[in-house]
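User: Could you write out the 3D structure of this protein bound to pyridoxal-5'-phosphate? I've included everything you need below.
Assistant: Certainly. Input first, then the structure.
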Amino acid sequence: METAEIFRIEGMHTSGAYAKRPVALVRGKGARVWDSDGREYIDCIAGHGVAILGHSHPDVVDAITEQAERLMIAPESFYNDRRAELYSVLAPKLPGDLGRFFLCNSGAEAVEGALKAARFFTGREKIVAAKRGFHGRTMGALSATWNPKYRKPFEPLLEDVVHVPFDDLKAAEEQIDDQTAAVIVEIVQGEGGVNPGSGEYFDGLRRLCDERGALLIVDEVQTGFGRTGRWFASQHFDLLPDIMSLGKGIGGGVPMGAVVWRESLGKLSPGVHGSTFGGNPLAAAASIATVKVLERDGLPERAARLGTWLLEELWRIDSPQVKEVRGMGLMVGVALRSRVTPVLRKLMDRGVLALPAGPTVLRLLPPLVIPEEDLAQVVKAVREVLEEDRG
Ligand SMILES: Cc1ncc(COP(=O)(O)O)c(C=O)c1O
């Protein structure tokens, strides 16, 4: 289909919920994507952090091709070999005794499930979330999400959700009480500006939750599966969450999410939660392949190494526009003194796709397999754009 035709038809039917860039992506391989005019880009968006193995990784393609021919759907009211295999490869990678899973289809659904599980296991209502936190846009997840721009049009949301400043233990301490079902946090706030929290903060949250009988939900939808240089970002701080929400990279590009919780919390009871597509063998096969490739190719370690290099190189950019460079592994943000949108546009003109994280932060979420030369090219493009704009 011609580019103009794609724009015309999408324009006619699209929801309007997305601000679209004037490019139609039609093909991807590794860390590269191509548009409908054949233009090539280095992809540091990676489907908003989904394509951790890059686009169309051969192991994922093989796994889903084979599974598609065998069995695509098997409800959770039956057992299934792929699901069993997924649990057996994924559970050993998770911190502590996180060993019970509810499989679903997206990050927001994983957060919904995590909030429901917390209420179910504690019998309490209150949720303590963080300012600048992002947990998705379904009604429950949106209640935990902070940004008023996303929340306002849909209020009233869940009652008894409070937002406290992130990385501020004192503020959390004032809100976590004997009515609190859960505290929900990200280890590195993604959408909120690529803000990593501190070890003392997470240690303190763990202690407060233990003392007051609340559960600690760590939302690893964006930080999970090697993105930050460890399998899960909680592991940087030896943090043992009670519940974790997973999404994005979990299926290597296939839509999937998961809620995982500690064995010691017990099980849900039949009917209290469910999902038609949750735990389908096609997504499970993709996820098994993803976990195996991450392990075989040492991708979390690679993300740690490349991420350290990337942070150093970005700090070297000599531009008054750069306020701060921060991040963990291959989840990196460049905080600017001006709006990020023109920078994103200029990067795209130079063949690099990057994301915003709020109005003034440039976010890079490249696939963990990105070749070093490509990453060097990304740094060069960012440097050129920011140094060119010195005023
Ligand atoms: C930390 C976090 N939680 C939840 C979500 C929601 O995931 P999804 O867009 O798959 O619903 C996101 C998405 O960006 C996220 O970054």
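The pocket of pyridoxal-5'-phosphate is lined by residues 48, 106-108, 111, 134-136, 186, 190-191, 219, 221-222, 247 (CB under 6 Å).
User: Perfect, thank you.
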